[in-house]
Amino acid sequence: MAKAGSVAKASDSSLQAVGSWAFLLGVVIALITGALLPDRANPTVTSFLVLLGTIVGLLNVTMKETNSFLLASVALVLVAALGGSVVSGVVQVGMYLGSMLDSILVFVVPATIVVALKSIFVLAERK
């Protein structure tokens, strides 16, 4: 019979695996969507990317990784938001690159919000 501690560890690693797959799937879908649909946003795909980003923020980022994740995601959000307008001026590929960056933003922003709120909650708990 398995001990309660081993069940909790298996559950934690399963949740970590779900978060890891959600991250990989989100990045791939964001890049494909940006490449295939550069001129219009699909509400279903956008909603799915937001859901995957939320799952990543909830399951894939531990408290030890919070600062690194927030720093990297803020840098990515800034570069994607500002870079999208820069690369959109490039002939032919600019529209696709800008759309890919926009799709990545749709995926990363919810994860960043969730992790930032978790971090604030932990800070508020401490006295």
Give an account of the 3D structure.
By secondary structure, this protein is mainly α. Helices cover 83% and strands 0% of the residues. It contains four helices and no strands. It is globular, with a radius of gyration of 17 Å. The protein starts with a helix and ends with a helix. The model is unreliable at 1-8 (pLDDT under 50).
Shape category: globular
Tally of individual helices: 4
The structure class reads mainly alpha
Helix content: over 70%
Output the radius of gyration: 17 Å
Q: What is the string of helix and strand elements? A: HHHH
Multimerization state = single chain
Report the strand count. 0
**Average pLDDT, to the nearest integer?**
83
Proportion of strand residues: under 5%
Describe the main β-sheet briefly. none
Count of discrete structural domains: 1
Question: Which ranges are low-confidence, i.e. pLDDT below 50, for 5 or more consecutive residues?
Answer: 1-8
Distance between the termini: 40 Å
Summarize the structure.
With 127 residues, the chain is mostly helical. The protein is 83% helix and 0% strand. Helix 1 packs antiparallel against helix 2, helix 1 runs antiparallel to helix 4 and helix 3 runs antiparallel to helix 4.
Keywords:
0% strand, 127 residues, 4 helices, disordered N terminus, mainly alpha
Write the layout of secondary structure elements.
Blueprint: H1 4-36, H2 43-59, H3 66-87, H4 93-125
Helix pairs in contact: 1-2, 1-4, 2-4, 3-4
